[in-house]
Design a protein that fits this description.
homotrimer, 269 residues, alpha/beta, UDP-N-acetylmuramoyl-L-alanine:D-glutamate ligase, nine-stranded mixed β-sheet, 17% strand, globular, metal-binding (chains A, B, C)
């Protein structure tokens, strides 16, 4: 069981080390992803040019790859930066946005998983179901609702690719295929903020930059993000206010709040 | 005359059906467009890759094409997705951003109109004037001020392309060339929110996804958006607050508010 | 010494002339840059297509080039628009985002400086240090902390390229290599808003569009932006609220506030 103290230590380490995060992401989420990374204490750089992605990935604390707006150019950016990160020992986080929406996305995710070592996969249940080869009622890039067992799917993906899988939802499920956790913080306004899952992936990268135990890093990132959303949502009537207050709460999160609100449990794989 | 009850029914249908909206739009407006689509109850996907746009358009409730940041690549994305939508009977909404600013934009809009069946064109007066071949004091992508008769211009464009034309402004004008409506809700802060017209186009698409009567759909979308803006603006000192509250009001709009505030009139073409 | 009256006159001129600003910028900052330009009274157009950038640059009040997300395509957009602007006598503002982060960025900036006449370079201390050939503790696109003499570096860059250099930071330094000013307004939340430096560059362009004295224009823009940030920050607990209130304060800035808060001093070069 990961202690609340450990979660707090990692939150502090992100703020103290201010890791450089190399983020290749979609045009919808790019601004919130950068602001959210700054709010938790990291230093984001959203570079995609083939001429520079290898150099940047190699000196970063972590690399985050998000397939929300793929182009042939950006796929190549991801492969170049991913290989450079792997070679330099920089952890890579993958966000398979809408993996089940088209063959093109699923094939791209599988190519990235085959060619790169991925530390953490962060997706919603529909996306993880696509990776697990299960049918699911996903709708475009939204999670949708399915009947499958989320933990069983996540475990299978984790074991297949030797990675941590973080499934976001009303309850988050995080597993490395041997140990698993559930994080029960969060708020119903999250799905009304476009790119809220993408920002989650960036925060996973911030924590992967400060702990080589990626299961622990992923749980800590999930708790950080979900508590901030919970505190933001309690003060909001709608998604416009939520988006603003989420950034404030990420910035204002402190030891006392994590101590008081963290709601996690270990579950049997 | 479209009844307020019908407007309310359509608002509910968007929320119940949660139509998948395929949106190809500019980088400025893309985030607000996705958030606004979620706020009214739709499920947006902003895909542009040639490998997947046909597949996504064909299964969407509506396709929205916005020419705000054209590239040769995105023009091809629009043609591919537009043809797939037409073939599948999926309505297409076109937003001719800055159509009068350069020959390149006007030519592109005319190419899209010639090759695709468009259900609704949503533009400001300067943009519709460009399509009608009239001079107008437009400035870049902003509406500018002109002396022309907005309804006459809109009617001409509607008849030429067999489409509904929705002209946004202090008063919105919506026509199919035979019947026309004015929507008088709105707020003076709208032009200070970049991409506010683009989001209007996305909401037109959300309503086109639930009613094959595109004139009715366009009036309902215009009323929905304009009332939300009016209620947001009344609470705001400036455009930063407006942008946030607009999202909240889109999310919070309900039957009672539409009943109370809808200010539309039928006008003689 | 530039008088407060002159700063106020320029602020009014931006609002009265509503200059068209052609902005080629990165995907992170593009939305805030457009909204901020509207808030100070300008009319932004974010065009990048090779087919139209020359035509738009030539009729604009100013052109702003920001290298935050370079691609081979956007570099060509910058060269085409920059040459057209130079030929038409339209001032060009350059924002060398992350110039020290990679050789690719530094080479691109030097190419732009060699081929174009630049009216104002707007960067943080790390970026200006890179142009001056000095080492600096920059981190990706963030300013970092260095030991160099900011004014000496800025002067050198200004004289080398016959341009005004505006260095943003806790205190802004603006120089043309002969005369220099410091602007002491601002707020510690600025670095937590991604693209806040990029928006500064756009506001520099808005002022360059109304005064051919680019030193004066740059000081006025810096004061406008820094006072708005100061007033916004005083009302905010975190960066989410700051971003919104900054837009409001840019829109609400008036003569009285500039009179009351402007904190500038001339410094000896």
């Amino acid at each position: 069981m990961i202690s609340t103290h450990r979660l707090i230590d990692l939150m502090r380490e992100v703020r103290e080390k201010k890791p450089l995060l190399h983020v290749i992401t979609n045009r919808v989420a790019i601004n919130d992803s950068a602001n959210g990374a700054l709010a938790v204490g990291a230093s984001p750089i959203m570079a995609e040019a083939h001429e520079e992605v290898e150099a940047i990935a190699a000196i970063s604390g972590a690399l985050e790859l998000n397939i929300g707006n793929l182009t042939p150019y950006s796929i190549q950016s991801m492969l170049l930066s991913g290989r450079a990160a792997n070679q330099a020992g920089v952890p890579v986080v993958l966000d398979p946005v809408g993996a089940g929406a088209t063959d093109f996305r699923l094939n791209t995710v599988q190519k990235l998983l085959s060619e790169l070592d991925i530390a953490i996969i962060r997706g919603n249940a529909g996306e993880i179901a696509a990776l697990a080869g299960e049918s699911w009622g996903a709708k475009g890039v939204d999670a949708g609702e399915g009947e499958g067992d989320v933990l069983a799917m996540a475990d299978r993906v984790a074991r297949q690719w030797h990675t941590v899988v973080a499934v976001s939802g009303a309850v988050d499920t995080i597993t490395d295929g041997r140990q698993a956790y559930r994080v029960k913080n969060g708020h119903p306004l999250f799905p009304f903020m476009t790119g809220s899952g993408c920002l989650n992936g960036v925060i996973q990268a911030a924590y992967a930059a400060v702990s080589q135990n990626y299961l622990e890093a992923s749980v800590a990132a999930s708790v950080n993000y979900a508590i901030a959303g919970q505190l933001a949502g309690e003060k909001c009537a709608g998604p416009g206010a939520f988006r603003q207050k989420l950034m404030d709460e990420l910035y204002l999160l402190d030891e006392e709040k994590v101590q008081r609100y963290a709601d996690i449990e270990e579950v049997t794989v």
